[in-house]
Design goal:
The protein contains eight helices and 13 strands. The chain is of the alpha/beta class and 301 residues long. The protein starts with a strand and ends with a helix.
Length: 301
């Protein structure tokens, strides 16, 4: 006899997953067939074989709030699904790459996912300098929070922002995403590691995992990255998901302006006068070029 039920994927690693049903029962499961792609956060339909005590995922239910990345061929790959809040985490160490943060924010904006930025390890000496570098994001409309390891109360704003949300922590390896989870959820045990001697973060999380938040909602801890390329098919083609570019583009001469070299471009004019942050504009240009390169790679030959 087999039992069919719906569940949420709370962890996904390769062809294996953990699913939790409406009663809170957690089971190990595997997708049925090679073409069934599952990610953390998915709502799925499962069949449990009581005789062999095995569970198969037979269907992925419609997704919303899905974060996608591009593979080397330009095709879209889901990272997490059904999230409502993306939390981009950055820290003074390892050396921050704000272009990665920009790309996560662009992917979230294009997917209709609310986003905020957390400056973690704000007790380190270089935190004030990094806070200054993050000001353009605040000016663009993003909330930027500071979390100190020596001040437990500094997490209160982050906890409030995640209440009743399905959040996902993203960012470089070693910025302290898993440590944030353990501080938000003291009873949860997650393996964390110190940074390497060269201050490059190790990958301490190898699979995305969802945890319930005490005041409602849930939080997904995702593996750290060294780079991130949003899926080109999901990016908003006019602004690339840069919210300040989207706002400025209404003043461009041409409706299909790429904001690269076109005459009468309001975005270029804003960058030249300082109304648009120079680093953010350079980040937009890099993503635009990547978008076009991946588009050519994905085109039929």
């Amino acid at each position: 006899m087999s039992q069919t039920f719906e569940a949420r994927v709370i962890a996904a690693y390769g062809r294996h997953a953990l699913v939790r049903d409406a009663d809170g029962t957690v089971r190990e499961a595997r997708p049925q067939g090679r073409r069934l792609d599952i990610v953390c956060g998915d709502q799925v339909r499962c069949q449990h074989d009581a005789q062999h005590d095995s569970t198969r995922i037979v269907e992925v239910l419609p997704r919303s709030g899905t974060l996608y990345r591009s593979n080397l061929r330009g095709a879209a790959e889901a990272v997490v699904a059904n999230v409502t809040r993306l939390v981009a985490v950055v820290a003074p160490k390892p050396a921050p790459d704000l272009f990665i943060i920009d790309r996560y924010l662009a992917a979230a904006a294009s997917a209709g996912i609310g986003a905020l930025v957390v400056l973690n390890k704000a007790d380190l000496p270089d935190a004030d300098q990094l806070a200054t570098e993050l000001e353009p994001l605040r000016g663009a409309g993003y909330t930027v929070l500071r979390c100190r390891r020596d001040e437990p109360a500094s997490l209160s704003q982050l906890a409030a922002a995640l209440q009743d949300q399905i959040g996902v922590l993203v960012g470089q390896s070693g910025v302290g995403k898993s440590s944030l989870v353990t501080r938000l959820l003291p009873g949860v045990q997650i393996a964390t590691q110190e940074l390497d001697r060269d201050l490059e973060g190790r990958h301490t999380t190898t699979a995305s995992r969802m945890y319930d938040l005490p005041d409602g909602g849930a939080l997904i801890d995702s593996p750290g990255v060294r780079d991130f390329a949003p899926a080109i098919s999901t990016l908003e083609p006019g602004s690339m998901g840069f919210i300040e570019v989207d706002s400025l583009a209404t003043g461009c001469r041409f409706q299909d302006c790429r904001h690269m070299r076109e005459p009468g471009c309001a975005v270029i004019a804003a960058a030249e006068t300082g109304r648009l942050d120079a680093r953010r504009y350079e980040s937009y240009r890099r993503l635009r070029r990547l978008y076009e390169d991946l588009g050519r790679a994905a085109a039929p030959r």
